[in-house]
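User: Can you recover a sequence for this backbone? Please restate the input before giving your answer.

Assistant: Of course. Working from this structure:
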């Protein structure tokens, strides 16, 4: 028989976690990746890159090799990553930093689950791949030609990519920093982790940006000319509305001459959305695991949840719902236009409802997307959320989109937008609860 004091301690543990789960979503609490409910380093993977490696090993897939770009073009093709997604970062914020500069920027390409980094003359191609359950997994591919290329998992990447900036889980990060003329970040000047909530004036420091955005200013395309001055100053006007980068570096050395502003805005939204999905999944799995142990010790039914365990699941889920509905998006003052084919190519991936509408449709006049709900709801990572979290998210989405929830937190969503998103999801999202169809 457990003592009353021990019973109180068992019940208090989830309560402490409930408070910490919400508070540390933006804080410094790093989730324990070796926790029994997670086992990040040992659980079998089912991401796109591990799947490609299996095909390379058994001979059912091959990677083309380019004399100048190595395995980059073949890797993009094999993983279905569009060239139009190319963005260019010239800040020295990669482990290949010595090879990166304003004259030799690092190229990034992405789709919904994979990001690929290429450095001119680099020894490896860098890859991050979203596993449906385990979060982002990091790999490198040696650029030396070989019969069977090996995509090597690199857990040392977690030194930077499992931090408060990635919501305490293995994830990607989009940073905006103050760079000097060599691309070296001026860390003493500070910086920003950016997503769709960020004002444009805080975005893209250390990045090249091609596109037009009217009188709106951003930190891209420029650097701090006098690093010793305080505070750090960027001539943001000189970096605005740049559509041609050929005078800044040899654009012919890359697959595309663009670093498209629209692709950058999509990438920023997607990175945080991915991290939130994985964080919610990890939190829920840990909560269920703890509750299962407590129930076994107390002789309670296996599926019974305490109020504190429910809060551990619901609080992060609510945070995710707010972000995926763009409730705190930084709206545009003037229209934005990209320079590559990304703006046309991205929406074609669908899916579309019976009226031809898609969550991938762009607005770009007042906000990024026409319909305020993240297309990442179609991802395998979302579908693989533990049932208690997914059920909570679906319930809250229904309450908001159907108009039942008219709270201040969702006041930015118009009745027309709620109705449109609800209709699109009904037509395009498999597995919705039955009450969505009534």
């Amino acid at each position: 028989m457990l003592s009353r004091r021990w019973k109180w301690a068992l019940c208090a543990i989830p309560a402490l976690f409930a408070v910490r789960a919400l508070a540390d979503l933006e804080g410094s609490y790093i989730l324990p990746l070796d926790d029994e409910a997670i086992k990040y380093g040992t659980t079998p993977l089912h991401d796109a890159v591990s799947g490609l490696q299996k095909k390379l090993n058994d001979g059912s897939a091959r990677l083309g090799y380019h004399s100048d770009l190595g395995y980059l073009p073949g890797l993009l093709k094999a993983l279905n990553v569009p060239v139009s997604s190319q963005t260019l970062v010239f800040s020295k914020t990669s482990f290949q930093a010595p090879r990166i500069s304003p004259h030799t920027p690092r190229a990034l390409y992405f789709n919904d689950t994979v990001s690929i980094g290429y450095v001119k003359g680099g020894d490896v191609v860098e890859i991050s791949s979203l596993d449906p359950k385990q979060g982002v997994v990091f790999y490198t591919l040696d650029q030396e030609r070989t019969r069977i290329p090996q995509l090597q998992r690199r857990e040392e990447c977690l030194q930077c990519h499992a931090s408060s900036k990635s919501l305490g889980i293995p994830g990607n990060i989009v940073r905006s920093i103050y760079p000097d003329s060599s691309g070296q970040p001026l860390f003493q000047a500070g910086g920003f982790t950016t997503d769709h909530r960020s004002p444009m004036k805080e975005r893209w420091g250390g990045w090249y940006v091609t596109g037009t955005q009217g009188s709106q200013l951003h930190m891209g395309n420029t650097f701090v000319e006098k690093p010793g001055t305080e505070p750090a100053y960027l001539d943001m006007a000189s970096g605005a509305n740049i559509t041609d980068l050929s005078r800044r570096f040899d654009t012919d050395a890359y697959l595309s001459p663009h670093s498209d502003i629209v692709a950058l805005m999509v990438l920023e939204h997607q990175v945080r959305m991915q991290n939130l999905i994985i964080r919610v999944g990890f939190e829920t799995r840990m909560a269920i695991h703890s509750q299962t142990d407590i129930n076994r010790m107390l002789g309670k039914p296996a599926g019974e949840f305490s109020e504190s365990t429910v809060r551990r699941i619901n609080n992060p889920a609510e945070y995710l719902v707010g972000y995926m509905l763009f409730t705190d998006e930084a709206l545009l003052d003037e229209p934005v236009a990209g320079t590559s084919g990304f703006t046309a190519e991205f929406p074609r991936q669908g899916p579309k409802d019976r009226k031809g509408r898609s969550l991938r449709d762009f607005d770009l006049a007042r906000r990024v997307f026409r319909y305020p709900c993240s297309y990442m709801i179609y991802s395998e990572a979302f579908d693989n959320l533990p049932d208690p979290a997914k059920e909570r998210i679906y319930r809250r989405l229904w309450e908001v989109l159907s108009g039942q929830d008219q709270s201040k937190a969702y006041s930015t969503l118009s009745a027309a937008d709620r109705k449109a998103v609800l209709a699109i999801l009904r037509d395009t999202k498999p597995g919705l609860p039955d009450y969505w169809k009534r």
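That completes the design. The chain has ten helices and nine strands.
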